[in-house]
Predict the structure of ABC transporter, substrate binding protein.
Amino acid sequence: VVCLTMAVPVLAEGLEGKVIGFSQIGSESGWRAAETTLTQNEAKARGIDLKFADAQQKQENQIKAVRGFIAQGVDGILIAPVVSTGWDDVLAEAKEANIPVVLLDRQIEAPDDLYLTAVTSDQVHEGRVAGDWLVKDVGDKPCKVVELQGTTGSSPAINRKKGFEEAIAGHGNLSIARSQTGDFTRTKGKEVMESFIKAENGGKDICAVYAHNDDMAVGAIQAIKEAGLKPGSDIRVVSIDGVPDIFLAMAAGEANATVELTPNMAGPAYDALAAYLKDGTQPAKWIQTESKLFTQADDPKAVYETKKGLGY
Ligand code: AHR
């Protein structure tokens, strides 16, 4: 007797048939593109009707999209907030309409009763982890650091800067010589790094670049190479996200360390929404994701292989 079993897709429970609006920032980085893909895939797996709005990096577009979701009477809203301020009014409107809002990957400055929960990493900690790695790697040698900041006014730019500064404080041999926004993009990361190199003796005076995300680091690596220097050795490269390309750069010796940020913020967000919509369960106000340091010692080629197919 031959017994055939048919694979029946299993839907994760709780949100089947629900309509969820997702206001995404844009697609400035590989990490964000992966977050979008995973949020959409996870919605499909759970039978959610996901309404997606790309804000093209503008808060006004996000606010407009959220108002649109409220007008449609969606069951829940996800927002990846481009900047940390200016959300109170629209969140109060969602609350008034009894629509739970979950923040994804960035924090905001607003009373926390205006949203259900925030799924994010501890971004100050990420900055500290990057800074601690550099302090250890540099030892007693003098080290001029240049910093590529994320989008001005965004919580990761504010907090990753703060954490890094805390880590190097008290180590007089390390100082941040230059710091400017590269807007979380490769193109801008490269452009700003080129200007840093020009201003710092053709790059010879720079000991390390700290980038608030891997995409800017990848742009900086290109600029360093074009200046005739070796990224990863002449100039150390430390950044945040853990996208596949940075692991390739680490495998080639061109980047030194990254702090991994999961792009799967939607999984915990959907779980929180499902529980809340079922029986009013209130999740913790902050669902914290892990921040893990990877260096060249962690077999970056193997890590790169495991990252493929994870939404990137
Ligand atoms: O908010 C998370 C940050 O936003 C990621 O580090 C970065 O790549 C991005 O686009």
The chain is about 40% helix and 20% strand. The chain has a mean pLDDT of 96.
